[in-house]
Amino acid sequence: MVTFRLLGNLTAANGERVLEWELKEPASLEQLLLAHQEEIPDVIRLWKEAECMFTVGVRIAAESTVVKDGDIVKVTPHNTQLHSADFPIGTGGTV
Length: 95
Known about the structure:
This protein has three helices and seven strands, in the order E-E-E-H-H-E-E-E-E-H.
């Protein structure tokens, strides 16, 4: 089982922020994303626009990073997606 956590304002198509997927064998992050693209359309859009960061465990991940059973994958939108609407420049929002 792989845990997929959506951070910031990201949600899956069903509104969830934490997803769990069965993984029969290790796969690249890209393969995992493409296999579940209908569940995470916002993540796929940000990924294609290079507007998010992935981590697997505690390490920053690339498309080729291997994901295996038990891993936790986190998706963080870049600051423009995460904070700009909530904290316009100069209003004291944190990054």
